[in-house]
Amino acid sequence: MKLIFLLLSLFLILSCSSSKVVKKDINEQEVPKSITALDDFHEDEEEVDITEQKVISKLEYADGAFKIGDFDEAIKTYLEVYNNQSHQDKYRGEALFKLGMTYSNILFENQENETALQYLKLFIKEYPISEFRMEAFNKIQELEIKIEEEKKE
What we know:
There is one protein chain. This protein is mainly alpha-helical. It has a domain at 50-153: Serine Threonine Protein Phosphatase 5, Tetratricopeptide repeat (Alpha Horseshoe). It has six helices and no strands. Residues 18-24 have low confidence and may be disordered.
C-alpha cells in the first residue's frame, strides 16, 4: 500500500514539475506578429466604439433637450452631429430627420414649417432607405398641406 502511495506521489510530483517547464518555455517564447497585429486591431475597434458612443450620447442629449422643450439646444446638437462628416451615415441621417421634426414641432415657438420641410426633403434625398423615411414622408405631406393653408390665409 505504501509502495502504491509512493509511486502515485512520485507521479504527481513529476507531472507538476514538467508542466512548470512547459510554462516557462511558453513565457520565454516570442509573440508572433500576427498576434500583435490583432491587438492593434482591437485597439482601433475600441477607438471606433468610443467615437460611436460619443455620437450616440450627443443624439441622446439632443433628444433630452427636445423632450424638455429646449428646442434651440436640440437643433444646435442635431446640426453638430449632421455636419460632422466623420460620423456614420445612420447617425447623421437620424440627426437630419430629427432636425426637421424639431423645426416642425408646434411647441417650438419659432416653428418654421418651411425650414422643417427643407430638412425633411434633404433627409429623404440623402438617406432614402433610412428607417425614418416613412415618418419623414408623412411629415412632408402634412407640412405641405399646412404651408398651402397658411398661404391661402
